[in-house]
From TrEMBL:
Residues 66-277 form the ABC transmembrane type-1 domain. Signal peptide: none annotated. The keyword Lipid biosynthesis does not apply. It holds the Pfam family BPD_transp_1. Keywords: Membrane, Transmembrane, Transmembrane helix, Transport. The keyword Transmembrane applies. This is Sugar ABC transporter permease. It comes from the Bacteria. SUPFAM superfamilies: MetI-like (SSF161098). It comes from Ensifer oleiphilus. Coiled coil: none annotated.
Length: 288
């Protein structure tokens, strides 16, 4: 018997889809318009073609910022994904500890990005911050305002503190969905803890890990508020990521043409890398 599909439910969400598309398409078209034209004020525009794209792609400023973005995202993923898995594996599955752990894990995610930056900006200060004052008392020369390495370490630790909980919650959701029969069979076979993780838990977490990987990559690659509040892109340009450079170009220098071209290139890079990660991970999942 052929199964029939009822698509009437789409009419319920159609107004929302239209509203979202309308609110997204108009700003995108405005950016595209600025990226191919030049203006000298008075709302007069002159066709520039691909000049702004060429200027952005041939500048060391763009490639340096892109390199910093890629390095930061790679470090974040290398730390948060394994750390999130380890924490999720050690969280209780039953009892009163479950809601307590879930609430504690969710707390950092509820803090707005600008507040997180402000917290760590004060936390790392040598004069009034607990972290900075403690490190100075221990004889460690720490100053995220003047030392690029300290600035990077501060941003990485801040991001790990803020967003590892997301990976933990996703991994925990994948773990609790595993039927007890798998663990009982593994216990009967005398499987080690590593074998249980390798052949039972990890395969069952692949899909949630894909979601966690993509979300954390996109968030870390497009990070702006936290480093802007903490370091402002400094010291020098050591923490000037593409997002910060884009805002400086658009608002600080008012170079709307190059800024629009950079934003389009930025969007395409995120889209391309996310598609590559998704394709590679889903292909490996299908082959396993």
């Amino acid at each position: 018997m052929e199964k029939t599909w009822n698509n009437k439910a789409w009419f319920m969400v159609l107004p929302v889809l239209v509203l979202v598309a309308f609110s997204a398409v108009i700003p995108l078209m405005t950016v595209v318009n600025y990226s191919v034209q030049d203006t000298f004020g008075n709302n007069e525009f002159f066709w520039a073609g691909t000049d702004w794209y060429v200027e952005v792609l041939t500048s060391d400023r763009f490639w340096d910022a892109l390199t910093r973005n890629l390095i930061f995202s790679a470090i974040i993923l290398a730390i948060e994904i394994p750390l999130g898995i380890i924490i999720a594996l050690n969280m209780p599955k039953k009892g009163l500890g479950v809601p307590v752990c879930l609430v504690l894990m969710a707390l950092p995610l509820l803090i707005p990005w600008n507040v997180v930056g402000t917290i760590w900006q004060v936390f790392g200060r040598v004069d009034i911050g607990l972290l900075g004052h403690t490190l100075e008392a221990l004889g460690i020369n720490y100053n995220y305002v003047q030392n690029p390495i300290d600035a990077w370490v501060t941003l990485i630790v801040m991001d790990v503190w803020h967003w590892t909980s997301l990976v933990v919650l996703l991994c925990y959701a994948g773990l609790v969905s595993i039927p007890d029969a798998y663990y009982q069979a593994a216990k009967i076979d005398g499987a080690s803890r590593w074998s249980v993780f390798r052949y039972i838990q990890l395969p069952k977490m692949k899909r949630v890990l894909l979601i966690a990987f993509l979300l954390r990559f996109m968030d870390s690659f497009m990070i702006y508020t936290e480093p802007f509040v903490v370091t402002g892109g400094g010291p020098g340009n050591s923490t000037t990521f593409l997002s910060i450079d884009l805002v400086k170009m658009a608002i600080g220098q008012f170079d709307l043409g190059p800024a629009a071209a950079l934003s389009i290139i930025y969007f395409l890079i995120v889209l391309l890398l996310s598609w590559i990660f998704y394709t590679v991970m889903t292909t490996s999942d299908a082959q396993s």
